[in-house]
Automatic annotation (TrEMBL), chains A, B:
Signal peptide limits: none
SUPFAM superfamilies: C-terminal effector domain of the bipartite response regulators (SSF46894), CheY-like (SSF52172)
Protein name: Response regulator
InterPro entries assigned: CheY-like_superfamily, NreC/VraR/RcsB-like_REC, Sig_transdc_resp-reg_C-effctor, Sig_transdc_resp-reg_receiver, Tscrpt_reg_LuxR_C, WalR-like
GO terms of biological process kind: phosphorelay signal transduction system; regulation of DNA-templated transcription
Stretches assigned to the Response regulatory domain: 1-115
Entry superkingdom: Bacteria
Keyword Iron: no
Modified residues (4-aspartylphosphate): D50
Length: 198, 198
DNA sequence: ACCGTCATCCTCCGAACGGGTGATGCCGGG
DNA sequence: CCCGGCATCACCCGTTCGGAGGATGACGGT
């Protein structure tokens, strides 16, 4: 099954599997909700899933999909390989993570490997997983503060918005700085954006 | 002609025009340089061009393409509609700007319109163009300062790095804030990243 | 029962930031 | 020729940040 919100990509993928004997495209969906509904009926062995989609996004869809149908293998096929995307996909339990610049042979191989119970990772994704031994993720509350910082809010404003004291805001930010390895709010929002945290 | 670095997208686009009588895909390219070489031989009427590509990117390719073959119409087909992307594409003289979530009918229509000398804009792109009457772009020097801010540098460090006084750095930043409509360095880097300025 | 994480709060303080006002020189377009 | 944008610099001043200490309670897992 193919899940992607771009008609162009869906057509391209279907075409790539058109003349492949051992792979059949049994369904297509353009967002997460549609994917769940289609999977229930079509019962695919493997799902090729984009991550960034309107409505229910890829990670949410994967979580529900794997809860409903643990036997279905999910291979992520996306444009981005940011730490946050990769980490969330891995946590959701995917069988593969490929980038959209992959050639058709790699896609064929990935689907077969996944169907056989194996795992497939794009090279850049593999290295992204390696290069984060101490990847400290900010807590939900810390991210909330960070998002307001990204909007240009001062600590005092953030305190008012979140109904906490300014001291607490500063404490949260101190922890965020430590976890992101920076020492200023400007650098923090840049790192957070690059990692897809906000 | 189709220009996109993703094989999946190229296949999808070719498939979309496969059974369309009045449109023929005469060439494909996976980056800007290849696009220039192919255009010279294939002489397409219309080029569907992605913007973000390895090597020579879309805007650079469009500029050279229009210099060499002014009669060729270029329609941008990309995932993003950031101000900077749209503005640069428009400045390069494109006949259309569509997003990759466009349905096939819209693509057909766009190619026909472009071939006939018309212009096609995705709705969100049109509104992006509208919503910037006073879109003040920071000057090169100001962007240089902003990039260092995004690295987390303090004004004093920026001054040392650029061999200017701290006062000058603050002046540049003051102007950047005014142009971006923000009042803090954190918000400035966010806006700059969203607009593709840094 | 204990330890780590999260979330909340406090004080003190120097450095950094952002706003205001003003000035100089250069350049290019009207 | 003059005006506006750019780049450079100065001084003042109030506010904000970020660092360095600490502290408390709640929760969840070992």
């Amino acid at each position: 099954m193919i899940v992607d919100d771009h008609p162009v990509v869906r057509d391209g993928l279907r075409g790539m599997f058109d003349h492949v004997a051992d792979i059949e495209v049994v369904a297509e969906a353009s967002d997460g909700f549609e994917a769940l509904a289609m999977a229930r009926r079509a019962r695919p062995h493997v799902v090729l899933m984009d991550l960034r989609m309107p409505g229910l996004d890829g990670v949410g869809a994967i979580q529900r999909l794997r809860a409903d149908h643990p036997e279905i293998k999910v291979v992520v096929l996306t444009t981005y390989d940011t730490d946050a995307d990769v980490a969330r996909a891995m946590a959701a339990g995917v069988a593969g993570y490929l980038l959209k610049d992959a050639p058709r042979e790699e896609l064929h191989r990935a689907v077969r490997t996944a169907a056989a119970g194996g795992a497939v990772l794009a090279p850049s994704v593999a290295s992204a997983l390696m290069s984060r031994p101490t990847a400290q993720e900010p807590s939900p509350r810390e991210l909330e503060v960070l998002r307001l910082v990204a909007r240009g809010s001062a600590n005092k404003e953030i305190a008012r918005a979140l109904l906490i004291s300014e001291t607490t805001v500063k404490t949260h930010l101190k922890h965020v700085f430590a976890k992101l390895g920076v020492d200023s709010r400007a650098a923090a929002v840049v790192v957070a954006m690059e990692r897809g945290l906000i």
